Amino acid sequence: MKTLLVKTPIAVFLGILCLWFSSCSKSDSPYYDYKNDVQSFNGTTLEYLQAQPAGTFDSLLLVLDRLPGLKDSLNNNQVTLFAPVNLNFAAAMKYLNLERRQLGEPELSLSTVDPLQLDTLVARYIIRGVKTTDDYIPELDGLLLTSIAYDYPMHVRYVKLSASGFESGGASAVDFSNPFGSNINKDWITTRATTVNIKTTNGTINILSAIHSFGFGEFTDRMNPIEDDEDEN
């Protein structure tokens, strides 16, 4: 009987310990649940966006309806898309309309902002040619790639995230930057895509972090230019 009383607490303790380790290895790791469920899609890049659940790419699709040239590129050209989600556009519109309210101007929407400026900004998220992380991995400093329109240079760098307790043992990611023509990194604005390498019949899609504000800091100034009073006199 004494033996049973001694072994039972030990067995219980060991069981709890095993459950604790199991829980830590799964729930406490911020990368445990990372999974790119769609490695390939049997359709074009545009069709992939259209096939996603409501609330994901509605804003991007609305914008593309106003930009037929870029929309056609996503359907027919070989491209790499760094796809902004709804929240990316919502952040940009929030800051724009906050400034417009302060200036006493009426609010705008994605349906009413300047289409020429919109075309310039959206084009930067579409890279000419099909690229995957295999193209970025050998380049420790990343690569300058050209946008589908206006030949604007954007910078892409491969990142291997760290899982809990394991350096560089987590998911693959890509840093996507607007260098603004500068070689100095501190002048850049960078966002990250942690869902990468979604293959379509005409390209690759990387989905941007929800905390990114569409336009890399230029959206408000481009959509709400402040007139120089001196130039008007």
From TrEMBL:
<protein>
    <submittedName>
        <fullName>Fasciclin domain-containing protein</fullName>
    </submittedName>
</protein>
<dbReference type="InterPro" id="IPR036378">
    <property type="entry name" value="FAS1_dom_sf"/>
</dbReference>
